[in-house]
Design goal:
Layout (H helix, E strand, L loop, with lengths): L6 E5 L5 H12 L8 H7 L3 H8 L4 E6 L2 E11 L2 E9 L8 H15 L4 E6 L4 H9 L3 E2 L4 E3 L2 E9 L8
Parallel strand pairs: 4-5
Antiparallel strand pairs: 1-2, 2-3, 3-4, 5-8, 6-8, 7-8
Helix pairs in contact: 1-3
């Protein structure tokens, strides 16, 4: 059972940009050799770049006490909500944090009446892929790339809540 008493998720603010950048770097550092250098830089944006992204859509952070241990962001695209930059510190994995972050983005998508959640991921992030598949995502697209790093798309249909007459 996840240890949710020790951590919680909240909406991020520009003041959280540096800790978010640190989480992204720590979460993906072990995979750096599998990325191209520009692909890794795109995956691990700077605090300044994260501040810019906050204008594109909401980001959330998972906090354990006062430490940021996870993050995710969302961008609305037509009928979809694109999930990006989800990461959990290696030391905080296995506690249900990534699942809660996914649920947070899905709740946002439902609130915005989106039809689908979409994301892209690399084939070497096997634990993340397993999490996405367990959450109902399926692979959708032909191979893509991020500055030469291989990617593929995933999608999950969102149950839109209809107002009662």
């Amino acid at each position: 059972m996840p240890d949710t008493l020790q951590w919680h998720v909240r909406l991020a603010s520009p003041d959280d940009a540096s800790p978010i950048a640190a989480v992204l770097l720590a979460a993906f550092r072990d995979f750096e050799p599998l990325y191209t250098p520009p692909g890794f830089r795109a995956t691990t944006p700077t605090a300044e770049e994260i501040i810019g992204r906050l204008a594109e859509g909401p980001s959330w952070i998972a906090l354990d006490d006062r430490q940021v241990v996870g993050t995710v962001s969302a961008v609305e695209r037509a009928d979809d909500v694109y999930l990006r930059s989800m990461a959990v510190l290696p030391s905080a994995r296995g506690r249900g944090i990534a699942t809660r972050l996914l649920e947070t983005v899905e709740a946002f998508a439902v609130s915005r009446r989106a039809r689908r959640l979409t994301l892209s991921t690399t084939p070497f992030l096997t634990d993340a892929i397993r999490l996405y598949e367990q959450a109902g995502f399926r692979r959708t697209s032909a191979p893509l790339d991020l500055y030469g790093t291989p990617l593929f798309g995933m999608v999950k249909e969102v149950a839109v809540v209809r107002a009662q007459p």
